[in-house]
Amino acid sequence: MEDLYALDFDGVICDSCGESSLSAVKAAKVRWPGLFDDVDSTLEDWIVDQMYIVRPVVETGYENLLLVRLLLETRMPSVRKSSVAEGLTVEGILENWFKLKPVIMEEWGEDREALVDLFGKVRDEWIDTDLATWIGANRFYPGVSDALKFASSRIYIVTTKQSRFADALLRELAGVTIPPDRIYGLGTGPKVEVLKQLQKKSEHQGVTLHFVEDRLATLKNVIKEPELDGWNLYLGDWGYNTKKEREEAASIPRIHLLELNDFSKKLK
To answer: Which InterPro entries match (predicted)?
Structure first.
């Protein structure tokens, strides 16, 4: 029987945290230039380091900008505009991001679409002016490039990243071309809706369906949809999730905890 794998991109195929953090700092300087007047390279490096810790909360790329500014506000009272920054720790961000995000968006007067556009523009400029450095700030997890190259299963990418960036990285880092109609990126709708579309396609009838994701919240959304009961669900334990989330996933019968070398074997 044939297998179809719907794969998340960031945190499953690609460790993009270095690139997204650096892009977010660049974009934050464009969006809020005054805030960074007194920020030296040491503080900037600290922000990028902290971004690795808080990365599991990010669902869509633009949130990286919000995190950069929030981390800066926790360290520099002089630029503080949000009511939540004082005494806030990275643990506090990990625990409460879904409550913090709407508060800071409102207090900073920010618009989601404008931040999405800005984040995309900053990345496009970086790619246009220095593709090699942009590519170099990303890395594919060990074994994944070969697994994609030699996969016998049907592969779809289902991501909140903009499709053009996922496509560029697949080509440049893995030497893999996935047809555009198999990459569902930002703007193609929530992942649960994409999975529904995929399972309805006539050519996918009778195929075994697998969805690999590194965000527990996303998998829980899939479980809430009875229509998606036919999907085998996997949480990649190498991705952007916390020990607490992995423990919770292990207690949910629908979810299989997956290790990286098993993932690569499955695709092949």
So the answer is: HAD-like_sf, HAD_sf
